[in-house]
Design a protein that fits this description.
Keywords: Membrane, Transmembrane, Transmembrane helix. The protein is built from twelve helices and no strands. With about 300 residues, the chain is mainly α. The chain has two domains: about 70 residues; about 230 residues, no CATH class. Helix 2 runs antiparallel to helix 3, helix 4 crosses helix 11 and helix 5 crosses helix 10. The model has no long low-confidence stretch (mean pLDDT about 90).
Length: about 300
């Protein structure tokens, strides 16, 4: 291969490695291996060329980064929450935005559909749920359904179901992101129809102060899981300089890390739904829980990742 052809084939990859640095040890290792392969080739066929000196310099830089990352971290779990997950969220910030837009668009569609079709809410939520809720409204306790199940069994069931939904939203990203979009759309339409059902009966504020005690974390986590699915789907659609298989491996690994990071969120949401939502709390207390949950989600998954990336 002529030197000019070798440089043309790989320049974009080399420039991407320099312009988009990574702190992920696995990704650093993969890049270092590719660079050493390129350097070995250049040393064999173009030993005195500028490209060989360039590759030698950039490979040395990656070696230093890789060596520093090999230092044993005594608290790998803490570093994951403190740095790795936030930096991954910053890297995936546009996927998070797209997931949010898809979900909110579906919510609006669910609301509008329920407003224009009297049968839509029953179609989406089911007759049993609607009939039970209407009976609860007539009895003066619109959201009594949250107090009918044992707390511990409800906690386990809800937490498992929420984790399952988030995992499905992520895994279906393998269908070039389409499956993830379907899950976001389905849950968004359901939420929009659900909230209109209470709005139509003058109970929107009552439902918000009750349901969003746990819903703030639960819905946010589903949107973030959607972002994880889009990360994997995007890696298949746009492999860039990698082979499609290699790009998929990297996208899947990033998505799994995001979904794992959501487990404590779902556990907390399940706890709130099982032990707190069923209580009759003053509006100030309910509003405070909702506000604190929302602030945490925005700070940890949006603001803090940006701040952290600026100091790296």
């Amino acid at each position: 291969m002529k030197e000019a052809v070798f440089v043309k084939r790989n320049t974009e990859k080399w420039q991407a490695y320099e312009s988009t640095p990574t702190h992920d040890p696995d990704q650093l290792t993969e890049r270092f291996i590719e660079l050493t392969d390129d350097l070995s080739y250049a040393r064999t066929f173009y030993p005195k060329a500028n490209v060989t000196r360039y590759l030698n310099g950039i490979t040395a830089q990656f070696h230093q980064k890789l060596y520093s990352n090999r230092r044993e971290d005594r608290n790998r779990v803490a570093r994951f929450w403190r740095e790795e997950l936030p930096l991954l969220m910053y890297e995936s910030r546009f996927k998070l935005l797209y997931s949010f837009v898809f979900f909110m668009g579906a919510c609006v569609l669910g609301w509008v559909s329920a407003a224009n079709d009297d049968t839509f809410v029953r179609l989406i939520l089911g007759d049993a749920y609607v009939n039970q809720t209407l009976e609860n409204i007539n009895n003066g306790d619109p959201l009594a359904i949250y107090g009918h199940t044992g707390q511990v069994s409800m906690f386990l069931q809800i937490t498992f179901n929420n984790i399952r939904v988030s995992f499905v939203a992520f895994v279906l990203g393998i269908v070039y992101s389409f499956g993830t979009i379907v899950i976001l759309f389905k849950n968004g339409v359901m939420l929009g129809a659900f909230q209109f059902f209470f709005f139509e009966r003058g109970l929107l504020l009552t439902s918000v102060l009750k349901i969003w005690i746990h819903g703030t974390l639960e819905i946010s986590a589903i949107v973030i899981a959607g972002a994880a699915g889009l990360v994997m789907g995007h890696s298949l659609l746009f492999p860039r300089t990698y082979s499609r298989l290699e790009s998929f491996k990297q996208g899947a690994k990033k998505g799994v890390k995001i979904v794992i990071g959501l487990v404590p969120i779902f556990v907390t949401a399940g706890f709130l739904e099982s032990f707190v939502t069923r209580l009759t709390l003053p509006a100030f207390v309910s509003g405070s829980i909702i506000l604190v949950s929302a602030v945490f989600i925005v700070w940890y998954f949006v603001i803090y990742p940006r701040q952290l990336s600026q100091h790296k």
